[in-house]
Amino acid sequence: LSEKKYLNGPDALMLKSDVAYSFSYITAILELRGCMARGELEKVVRETVLVHDRMRSLVRTRQVLFMYWEELKHVPLENMVLLESKRTTRGELQAFVSERSVEQLPEHLPLWRIYYFSDYDDGSGAPASAMVFRFSHCLADGISAMKMLMSSTPLTRPAVTKKGPKAVPPPPSVWERVHGLGSAVYELLLSPPDTTSLLKPGVHITQETERRVAWSNVAGVTVGDIKRSTKEGGEGLTVNDVLMGALGGALRRYLLHRGASVPSHLRAAMWISLRGIDIYDGKVDLGNEITAISIPLLANVPDGKDRVRAMHNQIARLRHSLLGHLALGMFYVIGNAPAPLAARMMRLGDKYTASASCVPGPREAINFGPCPIERMAFFVPPGNDLHLFVCILTYNNNISICFATDATAIPDPERLVSNFSEELASLL
């Protein structure tokens, strides 16, 4: 027994919620310049993915006792890395990932799969390919998976302009700590759910529910543009403030287009990393050191600039909240509870309208093996009665937006993509 490597609480919780709600499989999409032959692709996979123990392992699941990893002596890449050689457009790729987004992977193999499209039409006319990497959330969170895929390219940390010392705020008082803990407990356990709306119709999502996915780089707006705009404004706003403000505006535009009312109480479960995000440290630690905090999306604020300022205040308040630490602590405790109880505790759809991530990627262009990465997107398919997932990712000065939706509630995620681009442009 001492030789077994057991899943910790968060890893176990992600697996149990996946089994119950088809919720935890992450999909990463890499659009690449150029293409690789099968042997070349398998070599890159061995050097980036298979160097990690858990990517070579099965998960032995048990209802009550702790689950554990069981490493395979041989991983059959012929069954794990699947190639498609026919010409594939972006629309066809989006249809493919939408259809496969909740497909269960066989338990007799490690819980990941790569689909490689060697003749991808990205609209540029240049030779291109695309890789779709599906993996169970029990293996890794999105940040650590991105670092794993990036590990074939040595990264150089960008030079940082030296600034004067920052003012160190005084430590919180005992009363502030107690109040913060009370607020976190209330938000996590006692706060009322978002009201039913077009985005949160209260319809149960099943394995058969159709999911749809759309992603794109934002045209005409770069990370540099946002930084210049916030610097000139002199209000202390950040890139994240603007991106999250644009998300609230995109949802507002969508609701109004559909002739629906805009709820005053519309929140997202925002996934954050408590171990920090340093993509340049050269370390790849797989696992789940992430947690969810509640963030109002402020779609009811009609003026975009006002919404961004209000978002700035909300995010500043959450930086000092204990909610994320409390939620992660609960993940450790309930992750090893019996599967029905653990899965029930992850019913985020009972409380929130959306699940969201905002991920800072590399500031420069990188490769996957020999192929330059043109754009990246990550998503988790809607499940757990949560009908909308959003991932905003910055890479090489570009902004990638991805929406994954339950088609019965939101049949046209591509409209949300265009709404986000339009809203972001209007804020600068």
Task: Explain the overall architecture.
The chain has 428 residues and is an alpha+beta fold. It has a 6-stranded mixed sheet with strand order 5-7-9-2-15-14. The chain is globular, with a radius of gyration of 21 Å. Helix 1 (9-21) crosses helix 11. The longest helix is centred in the middle third of the chain and has 19 residues, at 239-257. Helix content is 34%, strand content 23%.
Task: Tell me about the largest β-sheet.
Answer: 6 strands, mixed
Could you spell the SSE succession in H and E letters? EHEHEEHEEHEEEHHEHHEEHHHEEEEEH
Helix/strand-derived category reads: alpha+beta
Distance between the termini: 59 Å
Helix content estimate: 25-40%
Residue windows where pLDDT falls under 50 for at least 5 positions: none
Strand content: 15-25%
Say how many strands there are.
17
Give the strand order, joined by hyphens, for the main sheet.
Answer: 5-7-9-2-15-14
Return Rg in Å. 21 Å
